[in-house]
Amino acid sequence: MLTRERIVATAGALVDAEGLDALSVRRLATELGVQGPSLYNHFPTKADIVDAVADAVVERVDLSVFQEAPWHDALRRWAHAYHAVLTEHPNIVPVLAQGPGRRPAGLAMAEAVFGALVDAGWPPARATHIGALMRYLVTGSALGSFALGFDIDPDLYDRYPHLHNAPRLAAHHEAVDEGAFALGLDLLINGLLAQFEGTRR
Amino acid sequence: MLTRERIVATAGALVDAEGLDALSVRRLATELGVQGPSLYNHFPTKADIVDAVADAVVERVDLSVFQEAPWHDALRRWAHAYHAVLTEHPNIVPVLAQGPGRRPAGLAMAEAVFGALVDAGWPPARATHIGALMRYLVTGSALGSFALGFDIDPDLYDRYPHLHNAPRLAAHHEAVDEGAFALGLDLLINGLLAQFEGTRR
DNA sequence: ACCTGAACACCGTTCAAGT
DNA sequence: ACCTGAACACCGTTCAAGT
């Protein structure tokens, strides 16, 4: 028996294991023991299945911090949590980088972030910029590893002397990408905190 | 007559006008007045055509600033220039977000950025983080408009009270996205500059 | 109400055949 | 050396037919 839940769970596992390109209607149907067209009884298009997979990932990001901590602390902890979830499901990030659209969990997350900033006293226009900035950093870093973006063939770097150690990046890719994300988040939040306190006195 | 140059130029125009999904081997061939398989005399796979289109975009980013200005100034001006080029060719950004790979212009850009940071005195590990951070911000912001990521249907936001103005974001999307990017770049570079001067004394 | 087989209009890629 | 037609193994989606 086919249900939306089973379809989304199987599609999500397929995307995690083999990437977005491996998710085809026929392939997903086979995995569910059914023929391709059957899925159209439960979702209008393949894009809706992909959206549901993406929203299931966002649903796993804890938003309770926004009720517990001051805005800068909550923002930092939420960004780390969001980043951690995306690191576990990197193949769906291209969808999330397009914004919440009509996805309920995406909208709930935007509401929590934007609401916390406005309630803390940030002007709405500034809160929008901060929200955008956070999405840029989190999805930008999750979309493709910086370290793995360099080929491991050493001969490739003969004409780029400063990059002679680039082939070694791949071996430490988690540490490199994690460190860059943490540095960026620190710089952004510390800078915002300084601005915030500057306007308060 | 088919040349790599003509193929890349036509493919780039097609991607700009209709998106990456519209670029198919048959469609591109038709636009070039030729049959699909002909393209395989000039490129081994479609992915190589896409890579060439991406590298042609990166080639348009001016790197001369790194010879003229102190690292923080050069970094800021380069990031703005890169961001401006991507804003003109948003549909190819998903490819650039995967890193330089084996693309010559991508590698030359990485060499210029990393080289300038190391030559200025940043430790290589830190320079790597800074380079990664810049790619996260620039590609993250170019990959999908934050403002256009929200649906314009006002009824959608009934259950998200803080987002009641979200449907109006689309009308000012350039200003919103531009402002968020500029804010992020300022925060990052000012923060890095403070760190740099802190270690110098 | 839900699943199927057949069909439509597409894909990327290979390869023998032409010039 | 370069282009073509035919073919292979795929796509997303529609729809009449079955239960």
TrEMBL record, chains A, B:
InterPro entries given in the database record: DNA-bd_HTH_TetR-type_CS (IPR023772), Homeodomain-like_sf (IPR009057), HTH-type_TetR-like_transc_reg (IPR050109), HTH_TetR (IPR001647), Repressor_TetR_C (IPR004111), Tet_transcr_reg_TetR (IPR003012), Tet_transcr_reg_TetR-rel_C_sf (IPR036271)
Tagged with keyword Transcription: yes
Coiled coil: none
Keyword Ubl conjugation carried by entry: no
BP GO terms, sorted: negative regulation of DNA-templated transcription; response to antibiotic
GO molecular function: DNA-binding transcription factor activity; transcription cis-regulatory region binding
DNA-binding region(s), chain positions: 24-43
Domain HTH tetR-type: 1-61
Keywords attached to this entry: DNA-binding, Repressor, Transcription, Transcription regulation
Name of protein: TetR family transcriptional regulator
